[in-house]
Amino acid sequence: MFKTVQNRVWAFDLEWVPDPLAGRLVHGLDESMTDPEEIMRVMWDKGGATDEDPTPFLKTALCRVVSVAAVERRSRADGGVTVSLVSLPHDVTDAAQTAEASVVGAFLDALGAKRPQLIGFNSLFSDIKILIQRGVLLGLTAPGFCARPDKPWEGIDYFARGSDWNIDLKEILGGYGLANPSLHEVAVQSGIPGKMEVDGNAVARLWLDGELEKIVEYNEFDALTTYLVWLRVAHFGGHFSDSGYAEEQQRVADLILAEIEGGRTHLKHYLDEWQRLKEAMTTREREMDS
Q1: CA angle 154-129-214, nearest 5°?
Q2: Half-sphere exposure of residue 34: CA atoms within 13 angstroms, side-chain side
Q3: Are 16 and 65 in contact (CB under 8 A)?
Q4: Model pTM?
Q5: How far apart are CA 128 and CA 114, in angstroms?
Q6: How far is CA 211 from the centre of its chain?
Q7: Which residue(s) pair with 10 in the sheet?
């Protein structure tokens, strides 16, 4: 369990797809093979594809990051709290913003500058690793993100195992084998939206079809879910009282409503699903009490 809730918290999630250039270089494919889908098929086949699982997860170093989303919680000196939702790329029609170097570089630069407490699900061995791998492969520099104190307790350290600055909810909630839940399994049983319509296996197809906007929307859903699960875990750990936890959830609901009014209309689907699950939880509790 983590020990602290810092003044700036980022619950984040990434989306990535097989990188056709990586497939061509690593597998020595002929330069005449230019169709991304054809190259991806070779990558999946070499990655152990079967009839039951035709698009297996590939090594993260062979994948390109296409989207990042995060929910930020800020505690102000006056005691106030603000919650916001951010995602990259901001404009999916801008080729400069959608370039992987821009997506990864902008997020790493923001981490180095803002130094938030990071929250993820399977982030230690997945999201953080792919950020580092792709940053190295792309020739980026991220000194702020990579900076480490001489001793873990003397400052922010994203690389120390067990650091309160890089919290992986899967490590807290998970175990081995059947004791290792997915984010979806934890979320929906907590009255929080899990996977909705799109899942990780569908992201590559969306990318091939040029549906980057839908990927970003799906990414935002996962960031919201990660944040809401973190709130629940923080409440379990005593960082929020019952009334405080209710206030934190209301802040998220207010954020979603504001974003819908601002044009992020896809978030209405998330809000509706959240309400449905909360009602299902209330019904379950009544049945248990009867």
Answers
A1: 120
A2: 2
A3: yes
A4: 0.95
A5: 16
A6: 19
A7: 72, 118
